[in-house]
Write a structure and sequence with these properties.
Blueprint (H helix, E strand, L loop, with lengths): L1 H27 L4 H4 L29 H24 L106 E2 L24 H6 L21 E3 L1 H4 L11 H9 L7 H11 L4 E4 L6 H17 L12 E4 L3 H16 L5 E4 L6 H9 L3 E4 L1 H9 L10 E5 L1 H4 L5 H10 L5 E6 L7 H7 L4 E5 L9 E8 L4 H9 L4 E5 L3 H13 L4 E4 L5 H13 L4 E4 L12 E6 L6 H8 L9 E8 L3 H11 L5 E3 L5 H7 L9
Parallel strand pairs: 2-9, 3-8, 3-9, 4-6, 4-7, 5-6, 7-8, 10-15, 10-16, 11-13, 11-14, 12-13, 14-15
Antiparallel strand pairs: 1-9
Helix pairs in contact: 7-8, 8-9, 11-13, 15-20, 18-19
This protein binds one DNA strand of 7 nucleotides through α11.
GO molecular function: ATP binding; hydrolase activity; nucleic acid binding; RNA helicase activity
Keywords: ATP-binding, Helicase, Hydrolase, Nucleotide-binding
GO cellular component, one term: cytosol
Length: 651
DNA sequence: AAAAAAC
């Protein structure tokens, strides 16, 4: 394949230069240890091979000590290893041809120059011809570090706002920047007043309070949880902060039934590709958001897990970019026009798998930009030019800082799992990235759990955003059967093994990487093939293990919350939470790995007696009804949940 | 507190 040859040739060509440069290090070999490190303060400990007594610094030239010889031999050994390694790089064929070199006869005669190993120190340029060692500025006399521009004296950082401290208020005023009017105005759309506008959302106090609704048990009220956002309990326990829900314009499912993707404004090629992917007619969330996105509005959308959010933003995004590019040539090395940010690499990869075919159907290119894999391919794609970048914040910032990713022409930016992207650790990189996009770029925020947590981004980046959701589509109305097993802690391993020993695909969630790893090994040992998915694995393994679950080569995957959000595997029919989640949102996302696109699924959460109440509170916040039942090893409930036949004669 | 996210 010429494709393979090209990079190889390129590498060889590149190596050509450094090999000549390598001569320098060959010359280095003539140096003796004493000189090469002249002036440097040797090791202070007498037993160290680099040890040089203080007075050696100024002492007259003398013979090599045994110690120095040993040091020299060792240095030689290291250098010859280096040489061997060098040889591994440049291929023999690529090295300078023999004919290019001076012919043997023409080279200095053997006798004219000492052989490498015979060359003696004395044969080198005479001391007198060179600056004498003692005449050279001594290390001590060289400009002191302190004499150079001191860090403190350099232009103060404080003179300009630090990147992460730069506040929205300090930025160019909106009015000073290109007007948003260049985009199709959202106002021109019909039914504008029907929208739940962000600004108009019902104020907290005006809405029915959550505690007015039927509650399970007597846990702290929602008001208690939200009264002081971020407040901590007496001990260092994590607090499941419940953010105010955004009021949305609820799309009635029947309101959009009968609508087609074409009706929504998508072009023929895209519609056909969607159909090929199995999306014949739009899901409600898609019917709700495609129009506004095509109109250029900033959109917040909440759609139940597995409700088709990726297409809801992906298809109109491709259509928008296509329209904006209309009539323009596809330039080599063009800057990307759309950016999709995701919280995990797996999710970024998966989004690309959905969007790439849609984009390609109209001649647009996508690329994944995420960490854990070599940059070269990603940079190569960017050099050729892509239209849509899909990735995770770290690598995107990295490539931007390296000048390899130009974000200045991004006109549509999407945050998938937007509320998660607003959490500690994600928010700031996301803000920095969004600030790099084109002024007035369209922002789309999607999540199954979209709440006021995204306020930090909404207030800075979104203009008159509308919130959409599908009426009656909260998590509890879905196709998922929620169960809580109250167990004895000591039986947990056996109960887990019993649950996962089944036919269907099972996703097990563990709180830590170590426990996820441990559980997968435990299942293996018990004869249930299982793999792990967590951040301690290299990306190749992560990708492979998830793929093995998708393809069915393994039916049990034990994961940390890296797999909690967005990951779509068609037919996971059981989710087991080996550790109960800390946050109601985590519960919703984890459980959303099953019951995708209307399928049935079961979520089993294991809790100990002590955690019972906390779990009840969490489920209350998640607005999920789940029966609690005691379970022990061998109980029928384990058989039932795992889908194994319960023996009717067993009583 | 853990997990994720860059080399």
């Amino acid at each position: 394949m010429p494709k393979n040859k090209k990079p190889a040739g390129g590498r060889a060509a590149k190596n050509f230069e450094p090999r000549y440069a390598a001569k320098t290090s060959y010359q280095d070999r003539k140096r003796r240890p004493g000189e090469s490190s002249a002036g440097k303060a040797g090791s202070k400990s007498p037993n160290h091979r680099g040890y040089r007594a203080e007075q050696a610094e100024s002492a007259p030239k003398r013979r090599w000590s045994a110690q120095e010889k040993a040091g020299r031999d060792e240095a030689r050994a290291i250098r010859s290893q280096d040489r061997a390694r060098r040889d591994d790089r440049g291929r023999y064929e690529d090295r300078p041809r023999r004919d290019d070199r001076a012919r043997y006869e023409d080279r200095p005669r053997r006798d004219d120059r000492p052989r490498q190993d015979e060359r003696r120190y004395e044969d080198r340029a005479r001391r007198d011809d060179r600056p004498r060692r003692d005449e050279r500025p001594r290390y001590e006399d060289r400009p002191r570090r302190d004499d150079r521009g001191r860090y403190e004296d350099r232009p103060r950082r404080d003179d300009r706002p630090r990147q992460d401290e730069r506040r929205y208020e300090d930025r160019a005023r909106r009015d000073d920047r290109p007007r948003r009017d260049e985009r199709p105005r959202y106002e021109d759309r019909p039914r504008r007043d029907d929208r739940g506008r962000y600004e108009d959302r019902a104020r907290r106090d005006e809405r029915p309070r959550r505690d007015d609704r039927p509650r399970r048990g007597d846990g702290p009220s929602r008001a208690d949880w939200t009264a002081k956002p971020g407040a901590t309990r007496a001990h260092d326990e994590h607090v499941d902060v419940v953010h105010e829900r955004l009021q949305a314009r609820a799309i009635q499912a029947d309101e959009v039934s009968g609508t087609t993707f074409a009706d929504l404004g998508l072009g023929q090629n895209i519609v056909r590709t969607l159909a090929d992917m199995g999306a014949e007619t739009p899901f409600p969330i898609q019917a709700a958001t495609v129009g506004p996105i095509l109109d250029g509005a900033d959109v917040l959308a909440r759609g139940r897990t597995g409700s088709g959010k990726t297409i809801a933003f992906g298809a109109p995004l491709v259509e928008s970019i296509l329209r904006a590019q209309a009539g323009k040539k596809r330039e080599f090395g063009r800057a990307p026009r759309a950016l999709i940010l995701a919280p995990t690499r797996e999710l970024a990869l998966q989004i690309d798998r959905t969007i790439q075919p849609i984009a390609r159907s109209v001649g647009l290119f996508t690329t994944q930009i995420y960490g854990g894999v070599p940059q070269a391919r990603q940079v190569g794609a960017l050099k050729k030019g892509v239209d849509i970048v899909i990735g995770t914040p770290g690598r995107i910032e990295d490539l931007h800082e390296q000048g390899k990713l130009d974000l200045s022409e991004i006109r549509v930016a999407v945050l998938d799992e937007a509320d998660h992207m607003c959490e500690l650790g994600f928010l700031e990189p996301v803000q920095r990235i969004l600030r790099l996009t084109e002024d007035g770029s369209q922002k789309l925020l999607f999540s199954a759990t979209l709440d006021r947590e995204v306020a930090a981004l909404v207030d800075e980046f979104l203009v008159e955003p509308a919130v959409y959701e599908v009426a009656g589509e909260d998590q509890d109305s879905g196709t998922i059967d929620h169960r809580v097993l109250v167990i004895d802690h000591r039986q947990k391993p056996d109960i887990l093994t019993s649950l996962v020993d089944r036919e269907g695909k099972t996703l097990v969630f563990a709180r830590t990487r170590a426990y996820a790893e441990m559980l997968s090994e435990q299942f293996e040992d018990a004869g249930v093939p299982a793999l792990a998915l967590h951040g301690d694995l290299n990306q190749a393994k992560r990708t492979r293990n998830l793929e093995k679950l998708t393809s069915g080569k393994v039916r049990v995957l034990v994961a940390t919350d890296v797999a909690a959000r967005g990951i779509h595997v068609d037919d996971i029919d059981l989710v087991v939470q080996a550790d109960a989640p800390d946050e109601y949102k985590t519960y919703l996302h984890r459980s959303g790995r099953t019951g995708r696109a209307g399928r049935a699924g079961t979520v089993v959460t294991l809790v100990t007696r002590q955690r019972r109440r906390r779990m009840a509170e969490l489920l209350d916040r998640a607005e999920i009804d789940a029966p609690f039942e005691d379970a022990a090893v061998g109980d029928d409930v384990l058989e039932e949940l795992s889908g194994r036949q319960v023996d009717p004669t067993a009583g």
